[in-house]
Amino acid sequence: xxxxxxxxxACGNPSRxxxxxxxxxxxxxxxxGLPVGVRVIVQQQWTPELAEDLAGCEAALFVDCSIxxxxxxxxxxxxxxxxxxxxxxxxxxxxxxxxxxxxxLYGVGPERADLLVIGGQSLGYTEELSPAVEAALPRAxxxxxxxxxxxxxIQ
Amino acid sequence: MSQTITIDPVTRLEGHGKITLHLNDAGVVEDAQFSxxxxxxxxxxxxGRPFYEMPGLMARVCGICPVSHLLAxxxxxxxxxxxxxxxxxxxxxxxxxxxxxxxxxxxxFFYLSSPDLLxxxxxxxxxxxxxxxxxxxxxxxKAGIGLRRFGQSIIEILxxxxxxxGWIVAGGVTDPLTAEKRERILAMLPEARTNIRLALKWYKSxxxxxxxxxxxxxxxxxxxxxMVGEDGLFELTDGTLTLIDAKxxxxxxxxxxxxxxDVFGEAVEPYSFxxxxxxxxxxxxxxxxxxxxLARLNICKTMGTPEADKELAEFRQLDSGPVQSSFxxxxxxxxxxLYGIEKIEELxxxxxxxxxxxxxxxxxxxxxxxxxxxxPRGTLMHHxxxxxxxxxxxxxxxxxxxxxxxxxxxxxxxxAKAFVRGNQLEQGMLNRCEAMIRTFDPCLSCSTHAYGxxxxxxxxxxxxxxxxxxxxx
Lengths: 155, 473
Hints:
Chain A contains 4 helices and 5 strands. Chain A is of the alpha/beta class. Mean pLDDT of chain B is 89; it is low at 446-458.
């Protein structure tokens, strides 16, 4: 029996403009195809329950949009568990916090974790992406597929 | 010199609220207000849309309890259609509503309130979060995560999405349950049962540590409103409403959704965007009441499931009549989770649960309709009016937080008077004010969260509006 050992966690709100970029990317990946053993979870927020999923995988890719980055710019960087426990005052978390929670709760976490960020332009009330983000999706998809292809996703 | 303390936003809540404490010259609290600082506008921008779109639209009010909004909205639509939905659709919707109650209660209890319960009200604010919980008691942290996942997974299995599923519609549900899905849910029950038993045992062991909070957390006697089934059976989805007074005597029973507006009114206060519901016969504020887990357990005669009934009997030993302290909302939530796990198993074993007949269809047969359901935080009512084409002309939503609003404000004054001293302000004092609000688990507006970390700002403001001191975390 095989288990998915690679996890892609996409996050955002598809009703808030570019914040839905990760959702769109997950849909594109589902059509284009990802290697067997890659599981994709798409949520509005990264919540503590995901720590359990992270604990059971060898590699994780977090996908998000950020208006702090230049619109349309795609970056792929390594992410480590938070060194200091973040002081969350609500129930959603960031990638580093989730990795730390997985390690603290379950004693294990992915050996490798990366963060794919698409720079956003507008988070208005629309299901449409801005032209800059729309144009960046093929590159983001290629990075996602490349990431998945380099992982050992089957136990 | 009189002062004002502002806590804005209040942390570890669903949405954004503000606490204002008014102190007298001696630094003693004289008045307190809990304000909801957002305006949403759902009732206005729904106008002109078809009534059958309302479940999908109105459920966007909330990302934590959308199933309750889906249900109240669908039931209002069914009143407009003048249809009775199939038996199996009722049972399936009941499973979804219970699952949502479990995941929402798990979020409230384990993620938002357990830091105070595990680490204490005076603990360093830096540790009062999920990491603090895990560090202090990893088993409780895992149980909470497991129970939230349990509830969310059931909603996802039934409706293909964890949040804002389109599966619940006016007329029933869009798809029947398959045997494979039924087995998947049944397989999750043993772990959920283990988790809630662990949590209940632990919670009861730490309860004696909070005598001061139990005495002062919105413990003033009040009336309670909640849904019941036949013969007073605990019910979340398809019952009628009962209002009991502070001594437990029923003062209104069998209230249907269509009668809600006749029985209950809504008052407005200038400091909050959330309205204040009240029992019309007694007026405002005398007719104010509480809803939610505490109310439901005070009102029902029996839970109807074996383990939850044992816990209900124990719960009722907490007070001589209806359990009054709002601190016990926490306890009630855990009992309701236990009930939910037992009830889901019972519903899944119903002989008709796999029936393919799950949806009634009809057009506009009435120009007005209302629906009620029990949201995790309490009674929820949607009331719609449409034109002959079924386009919305008017709507009103009465939410649990509005029905608890008066009690929260009274409770805030009570806890602030007991703990806050303006001339020696400490974090623990203000955290108790927030923690009292958290016991109600108010849902201020779950669908508009702040980006990033939500700061807590406490300001001391002099009578001339001058800022005397400020603390930010």
